[in-house]
# Entry
Amino acid sequence: MRLLLVWLAALLLTASAEPAPAPPHYALRAAFDESGRLEADVTITLPPGTREKEFLLSRRFVLGGVQVSPGTRLASAEPVESPVEGLVRYRFAAAPGASGPMTIRLLYAGPINPADDAGVRPLRPEGFELFIDHMWFPVGADIQTRFTLDAEMDGLDPDLVVVAQGEVTRTPTGVRIRRDYIDIDVPMVAMRGLQRAEAPGVEFFARDLATRLSSFYIRHSEGAARYFQAQYGPMDQVVRMAVVWRERSMAYARTGYTVFSEGGRSAPDYPESGAARHAAHEIAHAWWKLASPITDDFWLVESAAEYAAIRYVEAALGPDEAERMIAEKRTAAADAGPVMGHGRPNRVQLYQKGPLLLVELEQRIGRPAMDRLMTRMAREPVHTTQIFMGLLTEIAGAEAAAAFERALHS
Ligand SMILES: [Zn+2]
# Structure
């Protein structure tokens, strides 16, 4: 009897607990040869109930095969030039009445290096730097499809040091990456001569840990991780940070993963505040990453991270440094035009004007209210301007919210 009751209780629990639908999952096999040719075999499992899904893949790859689950069909394959040039958009659709998860397997091959690499060549003499901009794996056409990942990559020389998300296991000629949390990308740095350092919350890789720049990055990524966690709550992942060397200074962050470039920053007079702001900006993306990159709302990724970075600089290096950065943004943003109202904001609107509007909002509503607002927002599962306005209204009143909304549009 007792056993039966336990069993019944277990049954009831099972019945009442709605399991969360499994997120999309990518099983990716990639092999690189010496010439930089990629051969890929990617199986994507979509959540049950998916009726239609579109993916983008660079046209430099030749499709060798498509396999789909029963009831799924490849409805169209069209060349598209957006959000970058030279893509094919594949649309998959479920037949009426088809149930069960939609799975799609794409086999394709081609050069990993695109003709136009926009300053970040995927394969360079020192190794690989792969990320979503290279369009080398099937990217959800909304550019915000997040998935778990099981990747096996082959054709990596034994002396390449691999930096990637999740559980990373090096094999003699490749790497296995298992990521049990969702993200939009399959990012990886695999380079010769990377050294590794550890600090609380951060794993750091650079070709020389003893340089001035490396020491700034290590100090301030650790410092920023501590500072933001005290405000927003714990980070879900240790952040792996790799400093690569290329001309283009662009950096980017994914969950638990950040890439910096030495480009333009190795000079002996490069200021510590620059590295501090930069490290803090990328660490801040642990919280500020949830708005769509192809809409107006993207200011909630870049402007929010930049505002957070200025606050860190103020805490770490003093208010004068922060004031100097704010003054520079005032000059740079003078003719920026509205942040919102025209789709994804441009760079000046995202990195100069957007953070300034947040600084001005802080001045209007006061720092305690601002901190409550940003902390509440950071913990929201989805980031849209509408959600931000709702919280702002709740915390500081309708008038403050209306004034901020006007500022975003002017
Ligand atoms: Zn950013």
In short: The chain has a mean pLDDT of 92. The CA atoms of residues 163 and 357 lie 36 Å apart. The two ends are 71 Å apart (CA to CA).
